[in-house]
Amino acid sequence: MTTPLVAPFPDITGELGAIPGLRGRLEANAPMAPLSWFRTGGPAQVLFTPVDEDDLALFLANTPRELPLIVVGLGSNLLVRDGGVPGVVVRLGKGFGGITVELGHHVRAGAAAPDVKVARVAAEAGIDGLAFLRGIPGAIGGALRMNGGAYGGETADVLVSARALDRAGNRHELTAAAMGFTYRHCDAPEDFIFVEGLFSGRPGDPAEILARMNAITEARASSQPVNTRTGGSTFKNPPGAKAWELVDRAGGRGLRRGMAQVSEMHCNFLVNLGGATAADIEGLGEELRSRVRESAGIELEWEIRRIGLAA
């Protein structure tokens, strides 16, 4: 009988660190709570921070395919379960955060570049069309993977192409059409790790674009719990409905489980009041799904990404 894998996990960093030429940092049983905006959850068996794209490709090409591997970004829509994450968690850092302005009102951004920073660089360069990124609390990699959007815009509207690495370290260039974007989803293979995106805008006045971005900032601050331990929007909006309204009608506003609470300000946000476990947060979300299912006959779908093992 196989013994279940639980944290603290067996240390396999020695084996992985033996890959010739590998430059990135490998950490065994690395805390994941500091990497999630919820600030909760167990450790990663291995946390790998590659130096750059070549380093990541080398790592992928030399690790067993059966070894579980998950990629995380800024952790804004991430819930790490209390039992930790077996296998490897790849966290893209500074080597994937570049942003450059190119001819034709194009902006090229690495997967680790914060959406808000990309929006600002575009605005200051007089490139309109990317201001909506100011309203997404994440990085470009996440926007590519889930067609991130806010305030009337989404990634599908502005993407020209994306570059990704597969599980074997091979590089792939995908056109916007090949991404197969739908609402909060793309059809790119699950094992693709996005490393860069090229976006297209249109000529605009920097002052006007920045003013719109400031309006987005003010709108978020007045309607969302932006300075709390939260994971952003918890559920996707069902067709023809708004998740927050369904939760509100089902009596979810302010509902608590342990130290997790449904935000009083915005019912589609779950908040860690301090000391909440991932089980508290996920359990509260499942209770909301059950209430909405019973009251409205609608199945809410999680937008927050949940990874790892239960305690």
TrEMBL record:
<keyword id="KW-0963">Cytoplasm</keyword>
<comment type="pathway">
    <text>Cell wall biogenesis; peptidoglycan biosynthesis.</text>
</comment>
<feature type="active site">
    <location>
        <position position="303"/>
    </location>
</feature>
<feature type="compositionally biased region" description="Polar residues">
    <location>
        <begin position="221"/>
        <end position="236"/>
    </location>
</feature>
<keyword id="KW-0131">Cell cycle</keyword>
<dbReference type="GO" id="GO:0008762">
    <property type="term" value="F:UDP-N-acetylmuramate dehydrogenase activity"/>
</dbReference>
<comment type="similarity">
    <text>Belongs to the MurB family.</text>
</comment>
<feature type="domain" description="FAD-binding PCMH-type">
    <location>
        <begin position="39"/>
        <end position="219"/>
    </location>
</feature>
<keyword id="KW-0961">Cell wall biogenesis/degradation</keyword>
<dbReference type="InterPro" id="IPR016167">
    <property type="entry name" value="FAD-bd_PCMH_sub1"/>
</dbReference>
<dbReference type="InterPro" id="IPR016169">
    <property type="entry name" value="FAD-bd_PCMH_sub2"/>
</dbReference>
<comment type="function">
    <text>Cell wall formation.</text>
</comment>
<feature type="region of interest" description="Disordered">
    <location>
        <begin position="221"/>
        <end position="241"/>
    </location>
</feature>
<dbReference type="InterPro" id="IPR006094">
    <property type="entry name" value="Oxid_FAD_bind_N"/>
</dbReference>
<protein>
    <recommendedName>
        <fullName>UDP-N-acetylenolpyruvoylglucosamine reductase</fullName>
        <ecNumber>1.3.1.98</ecNumber>
    </recommendedName>
</protein>
<dbReference type="InterPro" id="IPR036318">
    <property type="entry name" value="FAD-bd_PCMH-like_sf"/>
</dbReference>
<keyword id="KW-0132">Cell division</keyword>
<dbReference type="InterPro" id="IPR011601">
    <property type="entry name" value="MurB_C"/>
</dbReference>
<dbReference type="GO" id="GO:0008360">
    <property type="term" value="P:regulation of cell shape"/>
</dbReference>
<dbReference type="InterPro" id="IPR036635">
    <property type="entry name" value="MurB_C_sf"/>
</dbReference>
<feature type="active site">
    <location>
        <position position="184"/>
    </location>
</feature>
<dbReference type="GO" id="GO:0071949">
    <property type="term" value="F:FAD binding"/>
</dbReference>
<dbReference type="GO" id="GO:0051301">
    <property type="term" value="P:cell division"/>
</dbReference>
<keyword id="KW-0274">FAD</keyword>
<keyword id="KW-0521">NADP</keyword>
<dbReference type="InterPro" id="IPR003170">
    <property type="entry name" value="MurB"/>
</dbReference>
<feature type="active site" description="Proton donor">
    <location>
        <position position="233"/>
    </location>
</feature>
<dbReference type="InterPro" id="IPR016166">
    <property type="entry name" value="FAD-bd_PCMH"/>
</dbReference>
<keyword id="KW-0573">Peptidoglycan synthesis</keyword>
<dbReference type="GO" id="GO:0005829">
    <property type="term" value="C:cytosol"/>
</dbReference>
<keyword id="KW-0133">Cell shape</keyword>
<keyword id="KW-0285">Flavoprotein</keyword>
<dbReference type="GO" id="GO:0009252">
    <property type="term" value="P:peptidoglycan biosynthetic process"/>
</dbReference>
<dbReference type="Pfam" id="PF02873">
    <property type="entry name" value="MurB_C"/>
</dbReference>
<keyword id="KW-0560">Oxidoreductase</keyword>
<dbReference type="GO" id="GO:0071555">
    <property type="term" value="P:cell wall organization"/>
</dbReference>
<dbReference type="Pfam" id="PF01565">
    <property type="entry name" value="FAD_binding_4"/>
</dbReference>
